[in-house]
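User: quick one, fold this
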Amino acid sequence: MPPLALQPQTRPAAGSEAHVHPALADAHDHQIAACDGIPDLFRPSATWTESLIRSVSDLRAIVAKIRRLPQRSAWDVRPLPHAEDAASWHAFYASTAPTLPIIASLSHAQTLALLSMHTRWLAADNARSPSHGVSQRQAQWILASLVRLDTLLVSDETALLRDLCKACLRIRRTLVQPPAALAEPVDPGDSRLAAISMTLAIARHFYGQHDMT
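Assistant:
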């Protein structure tokens, strides 16, 4: 079964605007998400976002069906690392593409742990190289984790998801408005921006994080 794929984002129509839900943003988040000064051309179009949400909804339905199969243990899935073993998970995700059987085999605890790890890995990778952004493999695994993540989250779990989103917002700001010592801003169709837009769109649509734009 093929791994998940991510499509480059398309540029929004001129004049489109991102909206922030004031009830969900505290002062710090509002500064990051609403006042980041990111031009609209670096944000995805409504068509791209709608297509992404349809695809994610379809993937969620497929994963739910797989998890209900009585013979789910018959899927050829490599043993997964322990939920808290960050070193083993890093090696696993770097060498393994996330297929639907792998996604279906993740527990809720493993999924949350993975998202937390990816937040830390993103911060570390971009601290070493500010133009790193999000790698294609990491984007696949973040998408896989968000496809598997339960819709109903408690407050601590929501905070974990928001930490990931805020890391993505900081990375996008660096890619689009790089310091003078770095390269020119990325192209609006860059796959790293698509990975960030994917994460933010899923957080908004499925988890009510409407200020993450």
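User: anything notable?
Assistant: Residues 12-35 have pLDDT under 50 and may be disordered.
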